[in-house]
């Protein structure tokens, strides 16, 4: 028998304890979120819903899908309801979420988005657009105004409906907001980058400064006074949803959810306490507001995400599919513990204890209920690796500290940048820099030359000049090529 589709009318068929804790019809769109992926739905949306429930304040989310209208349309067909299943090791717990009150495709809904971004009632914008959505130059961190999508948006900046990048939209939205009265607003990056607030603030300001708007200086002056870009750390492991997850959600709910998400039970959100206007009381659901997120941010990026990437490339070389599979090898746990120990001296004081953090990672990564594909984590390596490994590597090498685990990890990444005859990356990962990385292997180059060029492609000319590092990474390649992991 086919189950009815999940929507407001069908909610009465869902067991009562699995329904949203708030009535979505009582929420208003006061947050605009860019990036309608599974991570947002499992993280910020859950915090927002619980905060609305506990405070009685009507914080709802208008969620924007930047690239295609497809997910937004599917969500609209369900009255923006979807389920979130927590993958506990022994059992799963499913609940319908009602935090999202509007789902919009960025281009088709340009007029509505413009109205939301200028509305005084909307005081928070959040983003999960991944590292590549920021269009930063690898060498300087400035907005890459030569990137085709940014160049096109700068040329089209007078017409929001023509914009295709989130950075362009935010800049145009802020400009429209100041023209409409200029209520203060906070723009919150929830992507895995060090100092993500400053990174976002910079690229948005760079866009405004390069836009063909006569009032661009007035927009920049208003931004300096009335727009905040706090830094944040978001944490929750959210693997891509599978058909089996879809069926399990249907079995739990009794209705068909086309867009269920699954995630580990653990979640964390640490935010810099620097908002320009009203914000949801996310602390009621456990979010931490702190004066300086730096120590938490670097710990999470370098230990959790750093280990994730290392597991992704080493696991792929060893023929493994998921993080839990890699952890079940003889070397998985050793890799996590030894990478955490190697990187720990680079972490500022004031964050979590690295040894305890490593214990937690071993447990979280080993959760057999979470099928987190190594391919998913290994994708976009050219943007993730600089954040996760390279600054730690620089700090350690500047202090003449040995870096064997980071060298192994870099070699595993390098090994995974080789292209197949079909032109794709060897282990099925994707990366906007894949063709450029692949070219580093051409013409039977000497392995050290290849490693130097690969590091250059990451914008790390300084590390490419480090002969000791390049030699050590190149020396690791033959074993990896043969699928041998030697830690
Ligand atoms: C992962 C992250 O895909 C990846 O690169 O390392 O998405 C990771 O699962 C999250 O940051 C965990 O909070």
From TrEMBL:
Segments forming domain Mannitol dehydrogenase N-terminal: 30-283
Domain of life: Bacteria
Catalytic activity: D-mannitol 1-phosphate + NAD(+) = beta-D-fructose 6-phosphate + NADH + H(+)
Residues covered by the Mannitol dehydrogenase C-terminal domain: 292-479
PROSITE patterns noted in UniProt: MANNITOL_DHGENASE
Entry keyword Oxidoreductase: yes
Matching Pfam families: Mannitol_dh, Mannitol_dh_C
EC number(s) given by UniProt: 1.1.1.17
Keyword Methyltransferase appears in the UniProt entry: no
InterPro entries named among the record's database cross-references: 6-PGluconate_DH-like_C_sf, 6PGD_dom2, Mannitol_DH, Mannitol_DH/Oxidoreductase, Mannitol_DH_C, Mannitol_DH_CS, Mannitol_DH_N, NAD(P)-bd_dom_sf
Entry keyword set: NAD, Oxidoreductase
Family to which the UniProt record says this protein belongs: Belongs to the mannitol dehydrogenase family.
Name of the protein in question: Mannitol-1-phosphate 5-dehydrogenase
């Amino acid at each position: 028998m086919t189950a009815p589709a999940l929507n407001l009318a069908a909610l009465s068929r869902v067991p009562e304890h699995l329904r949203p804790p708030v009535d979505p019809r009582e929420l208003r769109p006061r947050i605009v979120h860019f990036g309608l992926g599974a991570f947002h739905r499992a993280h910020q949306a859950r915090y927002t819903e619980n905060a609305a429930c506990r405070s009685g304040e009507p914080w709802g989310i208008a969620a924007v899908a930047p690239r295609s209208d497809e997910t937004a349309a599917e969500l609209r067909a369900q009255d923006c309801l979807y389920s979130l299943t927590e993958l506990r090791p022994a059992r799963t717990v499913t609940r319908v979420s009602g935090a999202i009150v509007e789902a919009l495709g960025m281009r088709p809904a340009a007029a509505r988005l413009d109205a939301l971004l200028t509305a005084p009632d909307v005081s928070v914008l959040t983003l999960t657009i991944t590292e590549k959505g920021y269009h930063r130059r690898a060498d300087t961190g400035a907005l890459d105004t030569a990137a085709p999508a940014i160049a096109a948006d700068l040329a089209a900046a007078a017409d929001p409906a023509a914009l295709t990048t989130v950075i362009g939209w935010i800049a145009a939205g802020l400009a429209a907001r100041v023209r409409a009265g200029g209520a203060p607003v906070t723009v919150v990056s929830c992507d895995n980058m060090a100092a993500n607030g400053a990174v976002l603030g910079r690229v948005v300001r760079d866009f405004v400064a390069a836009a063909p708007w006569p009032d661009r200086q007035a927009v920049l002056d208003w931004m300096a006074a009335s727009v905040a870009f706090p830094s944040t750390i978001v944490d929750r492991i959210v693997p891509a949803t599978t058909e089996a997850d879809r069926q399990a959600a249907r079995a739990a709910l009794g209705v068909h959810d086309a867009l269920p998400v699954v995630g580990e039970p653990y979640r964390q959100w640490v935010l810099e306490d620097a908002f320009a206007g009203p914000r949801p009381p996310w602390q009621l659901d456990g979010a931490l507001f702190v004066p300086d997120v730096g120590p938490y941010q670097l710990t999470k990026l370098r230990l959790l995400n750093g280990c994730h990437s290392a597991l992704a490339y080493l696991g792929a070389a060893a023929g493994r599919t998921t993080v839990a599979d890699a952890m079940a090898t003889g070397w998985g746990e050793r890799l996590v513990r030894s990478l955490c120990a190697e990187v720990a001296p680079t972490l500022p004081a004031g964050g979590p204890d690295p040894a305890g953090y490593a214990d937690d990672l071993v447990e979280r990564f080993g959760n057999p209920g979470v099928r987190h594909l190594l391919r998913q984590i290994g994708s976009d390596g050219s943007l993730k690796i600089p954040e996760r490994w390279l600054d730690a590597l620089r700090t350690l090498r500047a202090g003449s500290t040995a870096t064997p685990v980071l060298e192994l990890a870099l070699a595993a990444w390098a090994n995974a940048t080789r292209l197949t005859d079909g032109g794709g990356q060897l282990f099925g990962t994707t990366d906007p820099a894949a063709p450029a990385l692949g070219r580093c292997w051409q013409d039977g180059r000497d392995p050290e030359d290849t490693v130097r060029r690969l590091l250059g492609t990451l914008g790390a000319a300084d590390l490419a000049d480090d002969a000791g590092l390049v030699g050590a990474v190149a020396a690791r390649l033959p074993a990896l090529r043969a699928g041998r992991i030697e830690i």
